[in-house]
Structures are given as structure tokens and as C-alpha cells.
Amino acid sequence: MSLKALLVVGMAGFVGSVSRYALSGWVARRFGEVYPMGTLVVNLSGCFAVGFLYYMLEERFLIDPLWRVGLLIGFLGSFTTFSSYGLQTFSLMKQGEVFSATTNILISNLVGLALVWLGYSGARLTLERSTW
């Protein structure tokens, strides 16, 4: 791993983590913090973005692997971290909120996987119909 790769991933990770903090904070202020809605929105939007970008950068437009790693691992890896997901779900269970914890697990995982597929398929369908 080169110093250049570390710097690109680190800078993209900084932007991703700041973006995650800003979006999840905005959602929490908008909808409240009883349910981990901010983390849910970040994780689901990140799942869609990773599906879309994976198709675009890995299968459609081959770009420099350094920039691909910066976007997918640096930015999105920091943006969609599931550590908050795990901690908040654990906290809900610890507080006896089993229903909320279970719905958070199911929505994050099932809808997240569906959105990865939707992002990938949407990018593929859009580009297959375009003149690019």
C-alpha cells in the first residue's frame, strides 16, 4: 500500500465521516432520537450509493483503482460505518426495546441489500439506454 493510497483513502474517509455525522445529525434533529433514524438513513443511502458506484466504477467506467478505492473504501466506508448501528441496536435491546431493535436489524439489512441491488440495477439500466 502506497503513501498516496493512504492519503487518498484518509482524505476521502474524512469527508465521508463528516458527511455521515452531518446527515445523521440532521435526521436525528428532524425526526428525534428515540429510534436510530439518522443511522438508518445514512446506512440505507450508503447502500444505494455503493451499489450505484460499484457498477459505475467497476463494471462500466474503469477509473484509476486509486480513486475507486478512495470513493468506495475511503468515502463510503466512513460514511456507512455500521458501528453506530451495532451500538444503537445493542442499546435498544439492553433497554428492553426488542421490537425497535429487531425492526432496525431487519430494515437495515433487508432494505439495505435491496437498495444495493436497486442502485446497481438503476445505474446499469440507465447507462445501457444512454449513448455513453
Structural features:
132 residues, mainly alpha, 0% strand
Folded structure, characterized:
The protein has 132 residues and is an all-alpha fold. It has helices at 3-31, 37-60, 65-79, 83-94, 98-129. The chain has 5 helices and no strands. α1 packs parallel to α3 (65-79). The chain starts with a helix and ends with a helix. The mean pLDDT is 91.
- Terminus-to-terminus distance: 33 Å
Structural class: mainly alpha
Mean pLDDT, rounded to whole units? 91
Helix content: over 70%
Low-pLDDT residue intervals, each spanning 5 or more residues: none
**Shape descriptor:** globular
Q: Would you summarize the structure shown here?
A:
The chain contains five helices and no strands.
Give a topology summary.
Blueprint: H1 3-31, H2 37-60, H3 65-79, H4 83-94, H5 98-129
Helix pairs in contact: 1-2, 1-3, 2-3, 2-5, 4-5
